[in-house]
Amino acid sequence: MIIAIDGPSGAGKSTVSKEVASQLGFSCLDTGAMFRAIAWKALECGIDLSDAQAVGKIAREYQIDFQCMEGEVLPSVVTIGGTDVSREIRTSRIDRSVSAVSAHVPVRSAMLEQQRRIGNAGNYVVEGRDIGTVVFPDAELKIFLTASAHERAIRRLAQNRERGVGSLDFDEVLADIERRDELDSSRDTAPLRAADDAVQLDSTSQTIAQIVDSICDLAKKRMGAL
Ligand code: DC
After folding, report:
1. Does the beta carbon of 95 sit less than 6 angstroms from any atom of ligand 1?
2. Relative to the CA of 60, which of 13, 38, 46, 101 has its CA 20 to 30 Å away?
3. CA of 226 to the centre of ligand 1 (A)
4. pLDDT surpasses 90 at 225
5. What gap in Å lies between CA 180 and CA 112, rounded to an integer?
């Protein structure tokens, strides 16, 4: 079974996906981390990020994998071509570059293949922007998770502080979120939008625990119906 969780940056997708996956005994796949890993590799190689073909070549050539740390059941380590980039992909440098990378058609088609390869291997919660619309259009459950930009900036700031990586300046974080909303929703290929059959949940005034409960209830109903 696939549970697709789409929505803008900072809506709580990662936290919600991990919690839903652990409650249901599913794996989870953070597709944003894959685009971030490509952005990191392209910068490492000194590639011009506006060059769709060159960045697409990187996306085709390097395999991205997710691994669990010892004692963990959900993956927290991201590697590209065997290099662990789990921390590097959360820096402000990558926040600023990733939307340009993820807008390129050759990059998206390479990622589509890798995402389906991983997700089709079992029961997965897959989070991203186009999971319910493009990557897994037949997903058994689709969620579109939103929150106000202000609330998302507050959460992203707390996450950066906790991880010890990324900007700690509220205005900078809010500006980055608003800029990425605009870029991710207005791009031609696989823009951020809710699938017609997605359940829309707004986490501005609901706690993460309430959102997780709603998703798990829906998933159990759908699993019962399978
Ligand atoms: O979820 P995130 O902030 O880590 O995602 C990083 C970027 O990747 C985001 O700006 C949009 C892009 N992205 C995408 O285009 N499609 C996805 N399925 C996931 C992320």
Report:
1. no
2. 13
3. 30
4. no
5. 20
176 touches ligand 1 (CB under 6 Å): no
pTM (2 d.p.): 0.92
Determine contact, residues 189/52, Cβ cutoff 8 Å. Answer: no
Per residue in 151-173, pLDDT (tens digit) is 999 999 998 999 898 899 999 99
Ligand 1 atom, smallest distance to 35 CA = 8
3 state SS for 18-87: HHHHHHHCCEEEEHHHHHHHHHHHHHHCCCCCCCHHHHHHHHHHCCEEEECCCCCCCCCEEEECCEECCC
Q: 27-68, pLDDT tens digit by residue? A: 999 999 999 999 999 999 999 999 999 999 999 999 999 999
Helices 92-102 and 105-119 cross at an angle (nearest 10°) of 100
Q: How confident is the model at residue 226 (pLDDT cuts 50, 70, 90)?
A: low
Q: Is 31 in the pocket of ligand 1 (CB under 6 A)?
A: yes
